Amino acid sequence: MQESLDKLQICHQLEPTNVDTVRQIARSLFLLGRHKLAINAYQKSQILNDDADWETHYNMGLCYLYMKDLTKAKEHMNLSLQARVSHEAFQVLAQIALTRDSIQEAISVYEKAVKIFPEHADLMSHLGVLYMKSGKDAISFSKLSTALAFDPNNCKAIVATASMMQTHEDYDYALGKYKVATQSIPDSSSLWNNIGMCYFGKKKYVAAISCLKRANYLSAFDWKILHNLGLVHLHMQQYASAFQFLTAAINLKPDQSHNFMLLAIAISHLDDVEHARQAYEQALKLNKLNATTDSFKLYLNYAVSLFNHKLYSESHLKLLEASKIFERYAAKAEEDEMDLYNKVKTSLQLMGYKFPESVESTENILSASLVEENSQTMLVVYENPSTTQHEVRKKSSKKKPTETSQCEESPDAV
To answer: What is the pLDDT of residues 101-142, one digit of tens each?
Structure first.
């Protein structure tokens, strides 16, 4: 590429008014990543041509996008669309909107695009994925089906449709679609992660670990894959392996309370109650800042871990906290979670610990208990290294209670 640029510059010296040569120089600079120089070259081509075609504005918009100047990038893409309507410019405008975390603006851009290009499968599939991200599954499925009608081999639409079916626990259909997608994108870590979580949903844990380890090989620093590996190992009761993967996930993404909760469960099974308690406390602390875990599950798991280690007073305190949010959570709780909650509650009641009937009395008992147990519950906050932090659809698998009766929240597919 550099040699090509050198030759083009010689041509420009011999014929400095040749617009095509200047555009090719700008293109070479763009491909070399020298975006500012490329913009200067495109501006020079505008002067020589007394005007600018759609492609010049489009390329200048791309340069500004890579330079993170989103305002100028959007301006040049709009100028490109005024000169000539192209699906490429619409896609970049949507990308700019997504960079600004504006999914609705991106949807609006794609809606305009599909009205002009109603048979463009890529535009339709991108629109379907955005609707899926915004929680409008019915519209999303309609758009994705339209995309597949125009292009049955459209990989993005295939994966997105499979992911939607995975969300609704139709794992066999999802696996069939994913296997078709592996023919086109065999090196996609997200794809292998989702395949692994389908097998997890089918309770085929060895197959799940095999697929997840392949995903981890393809994307070693994706914390979601490491999280899922940790969860599957927990279900297989391989607690040391779960500890390793969950620790790696926390190193990459230290602000996720769910990772700390699963880590605490693994440590609890390894009979290290003090470090398990520290991990639970860190999970509670993070969950107050950014609620990524259901508080009821978090307090319930904490109470069960303390109960299993015969720390009944502290377990009672945590279960009282769970009782405070029990009423609003009960409607969406799963049967195994409710059974676990009732079993621990009954066991503690038989030991003489009190549980109130109303939320107000819960708070009164909790305050009294905290005064009594204050000297026994001084905890050290779990310290974890702070490091750096990864599309397909998010999905929740069914929960499987462990033999020690600790409930575990299922992971998200990447």
So the answer is: 889 999 999 999 999 998 899 999 999 999 988 888 889 889
Which tokens go with 280? 């639970």
Amino acid 344 reads V
Please tell me the distance from the alpha carbon of residue 66 to that of residue 59, in angstroms, as a whole number: 11
Query: Do 121 and 147 touch, CB atoms closer than 8 A?
Result: yes
- Distance of alpha carbon 329 from alpha carbon 170, whole angstroms: 26
Taking the C-alpha atoms of residue 208 and residue 284, their distance in angstroms, rounded to an integer, is 29
Whole-number Cα distances in Å, 192 to 62, 125, 232: 31, 20, 15
Nearest Cα to 231, choosing from 386, 391, 414, 399? 399
Residues 54 and 84: beta-carbon distance below 8 Å: yes
pLDDT score of 108: 92
Q: Which tokens hold the place of 22? A: 């200047």
Mean pLDDT (the chain) is 81
Query: What angle separates helix 273-289 from helix 295-308, to the nearest 10 degrees?
Result: 170
pLDDT digits (tens, 9 = 90+) for 268-306: 999 999 999 999 999 999 988 888 788 888 888 999 998
The Cα–Cα gap between 412 and 400 comes to 15
Half-sphere exposure for 350 (CA within 13 Å, toward CB): 6
- What angle in degrees, to the nearest 10, is found between the helix axes of 295-308 and 335-350? 50
